[in-house]
Specification:
The structure is a homodimer of 221-residue chains. Chain A has 221 residues and is mostly helical. Chain A has helices spanning 16-30, 37-43, 51-54, 58-75, 83-100, 104-110, 115-130, 138-160, 168-180, 188-196, 202-218. Chain A starts with 15 loop residues before the first helix and ends with a helix. Chain A binds a DNA duplex (19 and 19 nucleotides) through helix 2 and helix 3.
DNA sequence: ACCTGAACACCGTTCAAGT
DNA sequence: ACCTGAACACCGTTCAAGT
């Protein structure tokens, strides 16, 4: 048996940070189902039990990984002159992080009160406050904006379970084809949407949803 | 070995419908983690493999259970004179179904393109069409409303993982207490929200979010 | 204090064998 | 055609033993 982490090897000692980092690497490459304590241990050249010394369990690991990615994404958002613009920038920052790390959607929408969500909530909240909303509407408005984000998060989560190499357009075309199979009477509207689906731009539509809420907010009294 | 389903016993032969029904019973009583093919088989007095003759896999079973519950909930929604009111009624119908079957939230927000979601989308879409929205905004508006629903779905999903007997208020108080632990500077806004959390009415707030979108819609041009 | 890795408990799914 | 139930593959988590 060779010594592993005890030697001053390439990686140094095990740490929560290194574990989370490695987890993100696996998640990005192989998705949620690819993240296994055995796989993680082998990549870190340690025993699977060692990880439990630094991380409580798999859920905590996923939460930590999500928070790490989103903290970076949010910190990178530039503050704009108008609160509305900062809100848009924040929303897009989260969107882009979810697009780059497709496993985040499921994590975010599955645990809406984890640290990463609070981070988003905090930054949204500050801007909404700056908007000069009446006090009693604050909670509702922030929640509505958060819902826009969780909504796309859910969509990304669904997309993340598809085969990795499937092109986005093929994916949407396949969904549209499924929808076209539905009963023409019972699902008349959905079939209408199906035609628009393959061409639509997720990111643009996401922003349109945020704007819709912002319009509603502007007309609050 | 006694014969089981072959006898004209109390339940009759195995069928997809009976399986889904039993699954819903388990889900309501024991949550997602309680739904096991072994448990399901034992409750149906059959072998675990038998279920696979009627249902493709666990995901399909969960989707079927979700669709069954939501189909009933949506069918029970009365059509109102004004499209806005029907939209509110629809949203509340879904909300109440999620409150009664706490496992549905995760299922819905985790698979936003399953049959149950399309059912919601279809009914929302018809009412939004009746609202007389410009064609190009249709997709965005329906998505925004769907996001409101998925947003609470996510919240319900999170709540469903808690111990079963924990009272709602205790749960919210516990979350509020967690939030109060956060850094006063980094999480100033979230800490503000924490005070309101234990007292707020989820259902009312949910409706307020829907209304916010409807206000935004009314001011589209 | 921190790491090792076998062992435990449990699960979704398959499949050869039955009826 | 439909059901049985043992077997397979895999996983999160624990823990006695090491250093």
């Amino acid at each position: 048996m060779t010594r592993r982490n005890l030697s001053t090897g390439a990686h140094g000692a095990l740490s929560r940070e290194r574990i989370v980092e490695a987890a993100i690497g696996i998640l990005d490459g192989a998705g949620v189902n690819g993240l296994t304590f055995r796989e993680l241990a082998s990549r870190l050249e340690t025993g699977s039990g060692a990880i439990y010394w630094h991380v409580a369990d798999k859920q905590a690991l996923l939460a930590a990984a999500t928070d790490r990615v989103l903290a970076g994404a949010i910190a990178a958002v530039a503050k704009e002159a108008e609160p509305q613009d900062t809100i848009r920038a924040l929303a897009l920052g989260v969107y882009d992080a979810m697009a780059a790390h497709r496993w985040i959607g499921a994590q975010l929408s599955g645990n809406p009160w984890q640290l990463a969500s609070l981070r988003i909530l905090e930054h949204l909240g500050r801007e909404v406050q700056a908007l000069g909303i009446p006090e009693h509407a604050l909670f509702n408005v922030v929640t509505a904006l958060m819902n826009c984000i969780l909504g796309v998060a859910a969509q990304h989560a669904a997309a993340s379970l598809l085969p990795r190499d499937s092109k986005r357009i093929d994916h949407l075309t396949a969904i549209a084809a499924d929808w076209a199979q539905l009963d023409p009477v019972d699902y008349a509207f959905v079939r209408t949407l199906a035609a628009q689906l393959p061409l639509h731009d997720d990111r643009v539509q996401f922003l349109a949803g945020v704007d819709l809420v912002l319009v509603g907010v502007a007309h609050l009294r």
